[in-house]
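Researcher: Going back to the complex we discussed earlier. I've cleaned up the inputs and rechecked each line, so this should be the final set. Can you rerun the prediction on the complete assembly and write out the structure?
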Amino acid sequence: MTLTSRAFAMSGELRGDRVIVGDPAEASALYNRGYFGVPQPGGGVEMDLLEAVYLVEAERLEVRRDGHRVTSPELFRSAGRAIPSFEIRYLVYRDLRQRGYVVEARGGALDFQVYPRGGAPKKTPSKYWVRALSERAVFDLAELLGRAEEAASVRKTLLLALVDEESDLTYYGVREARPRGHRTIGSPKERAVAHFLGDRAVVIDEAQADALHTAGFFGKMVGRRLQLSLLETAFLLKSGFVEVRNAETDRSIGLSRLIQEAKAIQSDFPLRLRAYEDLTARGVISKTGFKFGSHFRAYEGDPETHHAKYLVHVVPKGHRGAWPEISRAVRLAHGVKKQILFGEVGPSVRYVKLERFRP
Amino acid sequence: MTLTSRAFAMSGELRGDRVIVGDPAEASALYNRGYFGVPQPGGGVEMDLLEAVYLVEAERLEVRRDGHRVTSPELFRSAGRAIPSFEIRYLVYRDLRQRGYVVEARGGALDFQVYPRGGAPKKTPSKYWVRALSERAVFDLAELLGRAEEAASVRKTLLLALVDEESDLTYYGVREARPRGHRTIGSPKERAVAHFLGDRAVVIDEAQADALHTAGFFGKMVGRRLQLSLLETAFLLKSGFVEVRNAETDRSIGLSRLIQEAKAIQSDFPLRLRAYEDLTARGVISKTGFKFGSHFRAYEGDPETHHAKYLVHVVPKGHRGAWPEISRAVRLAHGVKKQILFGEVGPSVRYVKLERFRP
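Model: Rerun complete. Updated structure for the full complex:
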């Protein structure tokens, strides 16, 4: 096998970080069968090192410098020296090429332009923007939102190709999400009294408990009492639906005091509250995502008759996180058939949806 | 319904944080049908407030103080004042009682002793030790290992009942784990050269790559090269199976230098390395758990023919973490049919297994 294919290998000349195939017939074969390289005046093609390493590995190309053959290990090491994160980029390039995609590495900030199967440069628009990332890269939600928006504006699908430490690849599709639900909140006739219990509140009066629960799927009935989460308590207090009292002293508790108490046991409480309010304004009913390790599970309708459609994880604007955590959240959401949204809480709240993608 | 059952309710007297049912016939009915309270000399029973609130809520008991009826809301609020985390403890107590278990709250540090269905105090040994925890409690692995050991020594199952902010319950079974695999590591004839690429290493020589991969399932073949993770590289260097060279300069890299480089991109690298070595010494093959958001996926045999049995998450001795993260890891492991182990890396490495439990 190797002898025969080697005998037919084309020949290229290494010049800096480029490989030039000068023979017009060879160049035309490379470009026409696989769209490798950029055609040059005079009939050759100029390839980058990703392409050259790939073709050498496939034994379709032999590379020479100053009349001497450059071995595959030598070329590989040259590429590593010339190109930042070459190994990461190459693993993704190689995987996409092996799956039969035409891949262009000339996408500016985004690493690759990938054409749909059967498509090609100048014939069809590219379909995917693929960014190769090491699992050790920083998860930057603001950057991701920017890229997703940019990709959507030109009708591309943004994919992230995460390379783990064992060189396994996981692809994620990324797009901005605008969750919508159909909750409308009724107005109970009387303002309920909620007793604050340190990490939750309880409405003890049966009629008030029932009215509040019916008004907008607030809280959870435990026996005849209504248990409210801290978020629900703060939201309902702010909306004027409840007054909150200390369970021991029966003294009234105001909003700023309640938020202060909540912050003491959950430092990101104000962040969660803003996300809760945003989701509520979108008609989405959000409940704790504790069992799923995320901030919220979110419903488009009555939680007792609907399944939660989303899991929502929120971070403050400017947050930079770790990919393994994100990876775990996406995997988990997929396992329970929910969509995972990452929410960026700034002056407004924006959401990005990540899902595993099989190219 | 309420009138009739109220007419038959038994009567108890509130004294401090106890409720005394003095009538011998009523006391005997409470104790014999449900094992509520502690029988007193003279025929009465003395109950704690968990029991009293439960029985009042079920309308089997009416509580009086100084000749006046104590309403259910009043009693509930008294209990909240008298008992730390009453609400959390009560939710778990109530849930277990409603599931038909006999529950004793007198278990010392552990919150409840729970008898097997049909079992009872003085007749059968208790089966479960159940600890009620708020989802906001700290995850303390050392404490958990201690409790699991203690429970196992008297043949009890340790359960944690986590109460989330919406008062939903999740039970976890906890036990110490001792993972074992059947990897034996062969000795390749020659020491391989691994080129260090910053966040991984690569063995470029085909024969060396093949020998190393065969010797103990190390690395991953990509084309004809063998990609080694940083952990594998450090382990193999330490074991004398490879020498490591800088990919650009070809200069030799020693272990302490390699670990220093690895730490710069993964600050917990030494922790991971110790866990990797421990798992390897147990015959377990561990690979990155990146896709699952954990440190390792671990195999009892050849990763190419076996499924990973475990996901392993490691923390340094003394680590105190957050329950929502743990909850997410358990959920995820369950979804992919693997066992999740949490490893405590101290002078030795100890593992605890957590699984969801349906009582």
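Model: Worth noting: The two ends of chain A are 30 Å apart (CA to CA).
Researcher: Good, that matches what I expected from the previous run.
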